[in-house]
TrEMBL record, chains A, B, C, D, E, F:
This is Uncharacterized protein. It comes from Avena sativa. The lineage of its organism: Eukaryota, Viridiplantae, Streptophyta, Embryophyta, Tracheophyta.
Amino acid sequence: MAPKHLSAFLLAVCVVLLALAVPLLAGDPDMLQDFCVADYKSLEGPLRLNGFPCKRPENVTANDFFSDVLASPGNTGNPVGSAVTAANVEKVPGLNTLGVSMSRVDYAPSGVNPPHTHPRAIEMLFVLEGSLDVGFVTTDGYLYARTVCKGELFVFPRGLVHFQKNNGGAPAVAISAFNSQLPGTQSIAMSLFGASPPVPTDVLARALQIDGGVVEAIKTKFPLKF
Amino acid sequence: MAPKHLSAFLLAVCVVLLALAVPLLAGDPDMLQDFCVADYKSLEGPLRLNGFPCKRPENVTANDFFSDVLASPGNTGNPVGSAVTAANVEKVPGLNTLGVSMSRVDYAPSGVNPPHTHPRAIEMLFVLEGSLDVGFVTTDGYLYARTVCKGELFVFPRGLVHFQKNNGGAPAVAISAFNSQLPGTQSIAMSLFGASPPVPTDVLARALQIDGGVVEAIKTKFPLKF
Amino acid sequence: MAPKHLSAFLLAVCVVLLALAVPLLAGDPDMLQDFCVADYKSLEGPLRLNGFPCKRPENVTANDFFSDVLASPGNTGNPVGSAVTAANVEKVPGLNTLGVSMSRVDYAPSGVNPPHTHPRAIEMLFVLEGSLDVGFVTTDGYLYARTVCKGELFVFPRGLVHFQKNNGGAPAVAISAFNSQLPGTQSIAMSLFGASPPVPTDVLARALQIDGGVVEAIKTKFPLKF
Amino acid sequence: MAPKHLSAFLLAVCVVLLALAVPLLAGDPDMLQDFCVADYKSLEGPLRLNGFPCKRPENVTANDFFSDVLASPGNTGNPVGSAVTAANVEKVPGLNTLGVSMSRVDYAPSGVNPPHTHPRAIEMLFVLEGSLDVGFVTTDGYLYARTVCKGELFVFPRGLVHFQKNNGGAPAVAISAFNSQLPGTQSIAMSLFGASPPVPTDVLARALQIDGGVVEAIKTKFPLKF
Amino acid sequence: MAPKHLSAFLLAVCVVLLALAVPLLAGDPDMLQDFCVADYKSLEGPLRLNGFPCKRPENVTANDFFSDVLASPGNTGNPVGSAVTAANVEKVPGLNTLGVSMSRVDYAPSGVNPPHTHPRAIEMLFVLEGSLDVGFVTTDGYLYARTVCKGELFVFPRGLVHFQKNNGGAPAVAISAFNSQLPGTQSIAMSLFGASPPVPTDVLARALQIDGGVVEAIKTKFPLKF
Amino acid sequence: MAPKHLSAFLLAVCVVLLALAVPLLAGDPDMLQDFCVADYKSLEGPLRLNGFPCKRPENVTANDFFSDVLASPGNTGNPVGSAVTAANVEKVPGLNTLGVSMSRVDYAPSGVNPPHTHPRAIEMLFVLEGSLDVGFVTTDGYLYARTVCKGELFVFPRGLVHFQKNNGGAPAVAISAFNSQLPGTQSIAMSLFGASPPVPTDVLARALQIDGGVVEAIKTKFPLKF
């Protein structure tokens, strides 16, 4: 029997055995709906949902709504000089079904959080340290951009290409809010030049109106992940 | 003619005059839907919407998506020792229709952000400075509570009663994310004891199972606002 | 047989039985989407969802959409003199995914349905018998209140604190509609004074601006549930 | 003055005139979002929205959330022997944006609330008096039907054809809850045979697989409304 | 072992067995949220959801987002002279959770797609070949109808009764877009006269204001499916 | 007459005319909610909404739900060799509030619909003529791609970068469905290299890990629109 069938059968076994053995419903289904804390253990079984199934309420603790994942700076020693640390439903199980999450972005001096989109969320960015040049581009091609300093904030509408750049000589830090438990981040450069399998070179050459050789050269900077 | 009819008539005038005078649609309706920046000037006219009408796209600037309202601490010199500063759609016009907002909470030493609910949002609180005792109560009466320190975060599910207390001897600061452009805040104590007109004393006495005199005494601490 | 072997054995049994017995998909997935009747038996297994999984359509009957749970008055012999009986997704499985539910409220003479919120629903209350004083408090602290008599109705907006009081000398009855399959009810007094573990006394004292001793005295009226 | 400046100019005029004439906007846009009471006066002007614009908060009273429209029985002296009285956003302005409404249905003895759909809502029906035969048909053609007596309830899923019949010799009454501020009701017979202009006879004849003459005969029972 | 521990135990067994047998969770729960491809194999097990559970991301291929189901004409050799072929979530697993689907409708000369509703979707119809008379009826009984030719399109609002008729002498074809992964189709004639068990004859007779014998005669044209 | 007096005069005229002409509400607010046909004339006035206000129902005709905008091929004589023609709420007023739209894409031989996103919609593409190489890239960098021929379809999940290329020697045509009345299209190349004002060259150079001179060279291919 293939491993991937195991837990489905065990679930069926549970149903049968429990139908025989359990006199009545325990638990507190009321609570289920105040929250639905993600049951990460479900990832060990075959069932995948849009989001996560819930932990049984008797197993939920205050720690499910807590995280220290944003307490430490990310490592900005990379080609773009920035690092995003997410506190989303994959890290904070209590966020499941709640439609909100946060991220921390660290920037080396002159570091760039390169152009990207969040397919499923609006972002509101609050600067903790330093000063950033930020901007987003509308579907009509307008760029809305300005400098945002410590204590100030900026909003990036749903799904639009946006970026930030540390315009100072010291590290900068921002904290972002999203109206999704898992906003998703699609780096434009990675999507075009680092996809696996690759986006055909002729498609990119025609889109960017450049020579295929230039496309190939850029692709070498984005090693395939898979 | 009553003032409140003025702008409705001017709107009608506009329609008639422009129907005669303007050869065709200008503007860029495309842009409208990448965002709908709140037109605060509409508050001067009679029209009220669920949210706000939008500024014309040609009048939108990057500043509509920007705010420095959270840069300065609130005044915690009040009976509860805390102050909430909101960066919602009433302060950041670009948030209109985008479903996200932020707040800053300042706490004096031992200050309390007293039990309250947000009728329209989930809250995710990130501690900037200090250390807080936080908690929320489910509809079943469970309290989920713990201490949250600098750099850590905690989630409060939709609509549930929650609170924070600065458990240290120095001021504390937190920044919160909400999945609503205007979450609303309903302070429990203010709603019960400071509503205007007042909630009947016998209703409160019976609800709290205390003497009417005690209710009256508490009410004196919450002077009517209107 | 050791437990580990038991489930392995059951696994093998299941493999064989299911391989023999389930020739193909059967069922009618079309129907699933006209409704998704809650499968209460799922509560006996480990899986918890936001809401409920569905019964197989071939097991659904008209009775899944029916209930007599609101036919009898609730017992109003309690300190507040009222009783709420809910016909929500926990009682009427056909309501699952449908976003609507009802409640019946019975009031003894002078009985009070004490201040509470529904974190996930708007309420529309229709008076079947008697006459009620009703009200809700906005996030700004306005109280909207009036008397509602037999045959009349009143609306309580989402998430706001509200209450009803029987202002007559005979029992009263109301029927309420909610736009949620499980609106949740958070009694303010219970949440503040009867939570388990308790909300800290100093938080409540500061919030209500009363002495800690008074808080402790009120807490004794609300025995812990857990 | 160029036409495209004209409306900006008129808007500016509005602003100035209103700034002079209206002592203070005052008001509290905060409140707008606890509710958005329908401004029926807007129907006198040219603006039509999906739903209604809101009354200014300072003009809202408790009566906006109240109605006695369901207190009196409807007139069942008609061919089908039933009458539906709606308490929706067109009658109860406070319901605007709140997503809930109610109806009262009166049935003469043997009266029928004929097959119909609600394009925008789920219905939950509670029997106040008498006994009804009720049913709905799924998209697969199953009829789920049963008798529902005084104090009992039944649920009709979104958009599906359903009906009720008074199976007793005395008048019956029911109260229904909907998860829409304006559910809409599409009577099947009226839509097919009483539409204006008429649905072509050959379409109906082919759909029902009957003779065109029979279709014409039925149409005579449903006089055009417009 | 107490029954209530049994399922926890079996769950633990699952965890252990799978931890041993499955080398690594691998997968990327991130991906889950870019899409949730329907896992049709789940139909072999007991679990039913509103929609479908997702395939594990490592099993998803481009073919899950592809279909040729609309490439061939449907068989219009039936009493109404039309055939609808759906490309919904039951045929295209990648549509799960994405809220869109398509259909192809073929019409024999003079063929009719008889009056029907989609309880869960708006329809936008594009004519590929031929010329159609189309229309929908509002809840007020207005018919909005006109002829739509090759290359033209027409919109049918949510839940309203609508129909199409091939007004030409050659076959016609249309392609429709829906904003639901499974819009559902409720044929009016089938729902009234072909439901199983049958809608009571007296209900239909009273609704249509025709003789019961005529109702019975129509019913014979719609043989029961179940 | 000074402008300020003009509008005052017009005001007075309006008062009189409207007082005489509009005896009462009239109209049919019921209808408003079966649909809300976009009132394009509102674009001549100052009011902008998220979407459009509605035409008065008495002015709505079947033509509001109709369009022939997709009947003719777009002009593919451009650098990428493709043309998108949209039938969205800006062209089909009846689509307002209905959440669906369509597009037609024409491709010259070897023409490319270059990488782009739709910030607000899922796309389902149906090939009318020819054969396309299509693909989308997930947030994790996987490319899901394949060839789709006449009569076949493919789904692009929400917000993800995707493209199509005509892989044949003859023109190709596709028709797409979207679950938004105005999906928005963000061309990646245009957003990065043709935005106005321009995205800073150093941001792009760092994001793509190429020399600033190459960025500048690409920018020259995308002349500023504004």
